[in-house]
Amino acid sequence: MPQITPQTKGVFVIAATPFAPDGALDMASIDRMIDFYRDAGADGVTILGVMGEAPKLTPEESLSVIRATLTRAGNMPVIVGVSAPGLAAIRDLGLRAMDMGAAGVMVAPPGSLRTNEQIIGYYGHVVEALGPDVPLCLQDFPLVTGVTISPATLGAIFEAHPSVVMLKHEDWPGLSKITTLRKAEAAGRRRVSILCGNGGMFLPEEIRRGADGAMTGFAYPEMMVQVCRLSAAGDHDRAQDVFDAYLPLVRYEQQQGVGLAARKYTLARRGIIASDTQRKPGQALSSEAVAELDFLIRRQERRLAELG
């Protein structure tokens, strides 16, 4: 299994964890989902993130999801989210995931961190726990974690720990952060891969600022693949046209509280997973929300047909 590196580019789709209506893991849907992401052109997948409802899984279930995903993914790289309150849990799940063939692990900072020194020290402890040979993706998602990491603090972590090879960039607004990080690299700091989240809301701008691709769970990953490929070819106008066709649904998925429900509904509507079930606690869609999603998807399909 290839591992992530500072040169990793493309689309790593954040995968949902499929559940049956009774809340049990739906392993058949995992297989179907991974096949779909590969066919859609994804360069890799990321599991057990926020979208994957990781805190709702038992340790045994987490291992089952990792094993099933890696088996189905074959040579497609899989990043495993291993964020946890304690370093022992991060180390245990992270090393077991790597032993099974993961391409790397992703760790978000705990909400208790308040100062730059604490943040830098925390990632030093993470690298020490996992070992210097485990490729690490640092998840920078202050809207969820409550931890704001400045470009200078990120740079200090990157320089101190070569195993931190990737940044999952989800700051918002965060375009200037990408520019600052890339300017620092141009001035001599080592390169890291930057893949962006936030549902793909700012993907065209992020790529033009220097991001290497996307790492998010938008229910139409083919949009992210097309935008990244067209942008890499220099066709930014066409990339923007494609993005604009999907933007209303991207925006709808970004609602706090119901975003995951909307995303799972669309994945189930497309036949990628069998059920849009979330484990409790989870907010279900109202009939009005379902009607709104169906309306947006119909309009999206019509616009894509017009674009050819």
Automatic annotation (TrEMBL):
Q: Which UniProt keywords apply?
A: Lyase
Show the stretches that span the lipid bilayer: none
Q: Does the keyword Lyase apply?
A: yes
In the UniProt record, does the keyword Lyase occur?
Answer: yes
Q: Where is the signal peptide?
A: none
Q: Where does pyruvate bind?
A: M215
Mention one GO molecular function. Answer: 4-hydroxy-tetrahydrodipicolinate synthase activity
Q: Which GO terms describe its cellular component?
A: cytosol
The protein's matches in InterPro entries, at most eight in alphabetical order, are given as: Aldolase_TIM, DapA-like
Q: Which family does it belong to?
A: Belongs to the DapA family.
The name on file for this protein is: Dihydrodipicolinate synthase family protein
